[in-house]
Amino acid sequence: MNEAIRLNCVTAGYRRGNPIIHDIDLTVPKSDFLAIMGPNGGGKTTLLKVILGLLTPWEGSVKVLGGSPEKTHPEIGYVPQVIPDESFPITVIDVVLMGRLRNSGLFGRFTRGDRKIAEMNLARLDVLDLAGEEINSLSGGQKQRVLIARALAGKPKILLLDEPVASVDHNTQESFFNLLEELNRTMTIVLVTHDVGAVSAHVKNIACINRTLMSHGETLSAEAVAKAYGCPFELVSHGDIPHRILGNGKGSKT
Fold first, then answer.
1. pLDDT (tens digit, 9 = 90+) per residue, 90-149?
2. How many CA atoms lie within 13 A of 112 on its CB side?
3. Alpha helices, DSSP H only, in 73-169?
4. 3-84+156-229 sits in which CATH class?
5. 38-42, 55-59, 214-218: range with highest mean pLDDT
6. Beta bridge partners of residue 6, listed in sequence order
């Protein structure tokens, strides 16, 4: 089985009669690096919740690593869009140890092995020196690295990220996406974003969603993107090497 995620004819939402996503068919192969893009309110976060098993579809089926999201949830690492409440005093190492909760036994006691795994992932994300710092003292980019370390502490096979660079500057974004490319060597990554330009040079595939799936694959037609975004983006591919060209009236980026 080469599929990490498969959705068939999925419709879901929060109030009956008002679906947020409708009739979604989506297949994500193992080792893919997929960007899910679309406008605010288009259903990107709702789609992640369905994959995580946090939201049950009204119609259709969802398979993650061949099983239901509820059964395979431990195999999924999740990095939410919301940064931890800065009024809550908690250290970086304690945040990452939360990723080991399902392995910590009945009374939630962390072992030396749990701490070693937490420290190893902080080192992997180049923030081990911040282990004793309070999370609220970190920059946006540092916080995101800590949240990824927490997700990785559970040793997931799939990593889901919801708008992970919304609170970081451009230079930090580039470093962050390079890091995700490295992680993609050992796991499937699904990244939700509304920033087409930020991810175009890094991801393997793109899914464009605005309540329905407008397009999915290495290339999006100008018609599909314009329909989803309501703006004149154009993504094209030519020759042996895919090239994504994004025109916005102010030049282009390949």
1. 899 999 999 998 765 545 678 899 999 999 999 988 899 999 999 988 888 888 889 999
2. 0
3. 92-97, 112-124, 140-153
4. alpha beta
5. 55-59
6. 27, 63
* Residue 245 scores a pLDDT above 80: no
Angle subtended at Cα 199 by Cα 65 and Cα 171, rounded to the nearest 5 degrees:
125
CA 31 → CA 27, 39, 107, 203, 247, distances in Å?
12, 26, 35, 11, 29
d(CA 58, CA 16): 8
Output the CA–CA distances (angstroms, integers) from residue 195 to 105, 153, 202, in the order listed: 40, 28, 12
- Listed in sequence order, the residues at least 6 apart from 81 whose beta carbon sits closer than 8 Å to its beta carbon are 45, 162, 163, 164, 166, 192
Burial label for 7, CB within 10 Å (0-12, 13-18, 19+), is buried
Domain ranges for the chain:
3-84+156-229
Q: Can you read off the two tokens belonging to residue 85?
A: 């409440």
Gap between the Cα atoms of 27 and 33, Å rounded: 12
CA-CA distance, 219 to 75, in Å (whole number)?
29
Q: Phi and psi dihedrals of 24, rounded to 5? A: -90, 125
pTM for this predicted structure: 0.81
